Amino acid sequence: MAASARLRCPFSELGLVAEAGSTRTFPALMGRQQAMWFLMASEWMSAEQCQSAGLVLEILPDEGFAEAVQAKAAHLAALPPDSLAEAKRLIADPDRDRLKAVIDAENAALARLSGGPANREAVTAFREKRNSDFSAL
After folding, report:
1. Alpha-carbon 77 to chain mean position
2. pTM over 0.85
């Protein structure tokens, strides 16, 4: 991750719920309490916070970031692809079915919340360039 980069999970602020398996992968990487905060608070996370939480392996300087990433990619590309694929499969397979189930559940929750009162208020507030007010919900 670039040193100046930040990440954010804005789902709650949009009246929605996390997606892409993040309700499974975040707790696995950073623990339940920290994952709940990151996924629910909609706050920006610095590169240092992301690394400390286990979301990021390494923080690279902004200057030369693309070149450093290309060098890492070239390192992997020089290794035997079959070995890399098997390692990835062995690491991912034990959780694959559970992750698929979580993604299905997240998608169902997103479908239920999308267009709901909180989501409509968030979209309206965005269009009107104001903060959302969920107090009446």
Report:
1. 25
2. no
